[in-house]
Give the backbone structure.
Amino acid sequence: MKKNLLIMSEMPEFLVSLFDQSYNTFKVWEQRGSALNKDKEEYISKISQDIDAIAVMGGTKISAELMKRMPNLKVIGCYGVGYDAIDVKFAHTAGIKVTNTPEVLNDEVADTAIALMLNVYKKIIDAEKFARDNLWVNGEFPLSRKFTGTKLGIVGMGRIGKAIAKRAEAFDCIISYHSRNKTDVKYQYYKNINDLAKEVDTLCIITPGGKETEKLINRTVLNNLGKNGVIINVARGSVIDQDELINCLKTNVIAGAGLDVYANEPNIPEELINLKNTVLLPHIASATVETRNAMGQLVFDNIKAYFENKPLISPVV
Amino acid sequence: MKKNLLIMSEMPEFLVSLFDQSYNTFKVWEQRGSALNKDKEEYISKISQDIDAIAVMGGTKISAELMKRMPNLKVIGCYGVGYDAIDVKFAHTAGIKVTNTPEVLNDEVADTAIALMLNVYKKIIDAEKFARDNLWVNGEFPLSRKFTGTKLGIVGMGRIGKAIAKRAEAFDCIISYHSRNKTDVKYQYYKNINDLAKEVDTLCIITPGGKETEKLINRTVLNNLGKNGVIINVARGSVIDQDELINCLKTNVIAGAGLDVYANEPNIPEELINLKNTVLLPHIASATVETRNAMGQLVFDNIKAYFENKPLISPVV
């Protein structure tokens, strides 16, 4: 008998199609009416007793309360490397397995981080608009700032942090990092994030989200980063105190920011949108066809492995 | 007695200020009236007999005719690495030295090339507008294309070509190149540019301009690059047949283009501006404060060296 799979958030067509072939699928995101959350809630209530597995985009909340309503739930496949929106602690006590999609997106997120750095330093977005608006005929675009050779501080030296560092080395960046523990890399380690912020030109955030890192980048860190400093965030919006970031960008406490993630996605505060010293992306760090296909396949393969009693490929432990 | 220096095109203030301290300066670009070219022409005619040196932005034409009108002209300092707008052959027969600014801009141009590649592949410009227009609340930005691991063909393996290759290696690009002669690099060499175009995903142009490379990238090369192919140009607009490029972009003969240079700068054809598969920059490859300062200093130091009878630092030979 086919297992019942609840797909919490919209997923790529090829993956939904794969799921449709192997499971009875229940698509929460299709339950969109005039009362969005109410419709979804009623839908989940009707089927929750029968659900065996959940597939979910990273960032969509899976609370203990939700899991408690699903007595047959065995496995949650998270599409993304960050699983901070899932109550993993509760899942584990309830014997529910959680999987995520590490490794396959390392390169892509690192590419996005470097793209943000180059765009902030070299004002590519503004220059492109200047060219396209045909303003060049009236004079040159203002000079920007050199990226090669700058000091880059990476907050979080995991797999993606290392991929960012590898690329930044080719730009002759002087690399240092902060993480909870010193790791097996050649770069200078800073136990104290404020010491790192004082030292570098760019602070690139690629640490897991969740309670432990909430507002790790606070006003003090931003003050220490200083007026020539640039913030890049390809981690989670929660890691930065977004209100303080906006204040610092407004008053030139720091020079600029390149952001892929925000406190309350998909909402980007109007204050941030109005700031000229920002490059703002809609959480596309891993959003290429190639990488999303690899992530989707990994979500599918993990859930499949569970129901075939095989070892999970990438369990969250 | 101070020498007479003709400054042909607008230059950074710090450099003009340096020149003002050491020379009698004549500033052509300040002669802007309702009849721009006529005013400039009259201005030059009045002073041409007395000019000892010229400082000029790369890309501004210095013809044999102009040099013939300056019997005292001894040295031309070109601000930029490309000196294709200067009739160097005539200059050399007339005993006029020409200098340019190589090396100091290698990293900057390479940074711009990589920025263009990442922006084209990952559709950063469109994604940024999507975020800033607050469209994210209605749904996700479409998936783009992975850059890491793609095949990069570099046309011109000089100093900047090598700097581009160094960066692209960190993105695991498979690198090959075309130039007139095989050079001392480990990358695969293609004598025939069409063979290279067939092989790669991206063709990045960083070969000198001028007659020898005029329209090197023609319709045949674009056909061979093919429908998934991307053109990046940080060299000179003259190297590409711009009309054919526009045709190919319009009809999806190739996938996209990231351009910093054009056939008739500062004019960008409206057809190019209207194309969505382009990233267009206003010739900013070297346009950061740090790099332009280094370039300006080198222009100054070359002209100074000449009049102090010292060896030129970076003569065009």
